[in-house]
């Protein structure tokens, strides 16, 4: 079952440090190593040890059977071989409301699904109400470089009160402005961590 994202026995002989491939855990940021030679029987033995709170024995079983570094085995055992999602997840690419987890394949709000395909690029949700824009900022839990806020030109009042209210929510997150793109009828604002 050789896979470019999994480790062969030969790969494991020279591996050290932390895994540099495998699925990314959205809770801790570690890569969860996958092993070419982890068959069903070994998997069942290791999972049974984990289920019986014998993580040290489960780790040793992986090291003995696969020849993997202890750190790889510990990461695998801690995660039970699967990356953990983040709660709540990113916005739905269709309706913009939050998904339940970062690994969700269907929206609990609009019920659109993408089980057998990559999720589509998110549709731009243009905010024309300052309270909804602020709620979107407050609800977001990812890195600012991945967040975009599309604000209707109707919120660009001459005094700047609406953008000041939205700006306060941005400042509470500790973010800096990273420019904007003027589109037809709205602006897309981008953010970053302070330099």
Structural commentary:
With 195 residues, the protein is α+β, with helices and mostly antiparallel strands. The protein folds into 2 domains: 71 residues, no CATH class; 67 residues, no CATH class. The protein has 6 helices and 6 strands, in the order αββαααβαβαββ. A 4-stranded mixed sheet has the order 3-4-6-5. α3 packs across α4 and α5 packs parallel to α6. It is elongated, with a radius of gyration of 22 Å. It starts with 8 loop residues before the first helix and ends with a strand. The mean pLDDT is 88.
Per-chain topology:
Blueprint: H1 9-14, E1 23-24, E2 31-32, H2 40-51, H3 55-66, H4 70-79, E3 126-127, H5 130-139, E4 148-152, H6 161-172, E5 176-182, E6 186-192
Parallel strand pairs: 3-4
Antiparallel strand pairs: 1-2, 4-6, 5-6
Describe what is shown at a glance.
With 195 residues, the protein is α+β, with helices and mostly antiparallel strands. The protein has helices at 9-14, 40-51, 55-66, 70-79, 130-139, 161-172; strands spanning 23-24, 31-32, 126-127, 148-152, 176-182, 186-192. The chain has 2 domains: 9-79, no CATH class; 126-192, no CATH class.
């Amino acid at each position: 079952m050789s896979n470019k994202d999994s480790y062969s026995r030969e790969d494991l002989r020279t591996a050290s440090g932390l895994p540099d491939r495998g699925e990314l855990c959205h809770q801790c940021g570690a890569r969860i190593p996958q092993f070419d030679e982890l068959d069903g029987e070994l998997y069942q033995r290791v999972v049974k040890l984990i289920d019986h709170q014998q993580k040290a024995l489960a780790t040793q079983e992986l090291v003995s059977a696969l020849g993997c570094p202890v750190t790889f085995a510990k990461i695998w055992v801690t995660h039970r071989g699967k990356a953990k999602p983040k709660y709540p997840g990113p916005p739905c690419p269709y309706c913009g409301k939050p998904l339940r987890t970062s690994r969700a394949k269907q929206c609990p709000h609009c019920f659109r699904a993408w089980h057998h395909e990559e999720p589509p690029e998110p549709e731009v949700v243009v905010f024309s109400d300052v309270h909804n824009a602020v709620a979107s900022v407050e609800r977001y839990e990812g890195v600012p470089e991945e967040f975009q806020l599309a604000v209707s030109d109707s919120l660009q009042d001459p005094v700047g009160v609406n953008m000041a209210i939205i700006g306060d929510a941005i400042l509470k997150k500790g973010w800096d402005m990273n420019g904007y793109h003027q589109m037809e009828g709205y602006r897309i604002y981008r953010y970053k961590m302070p330099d």
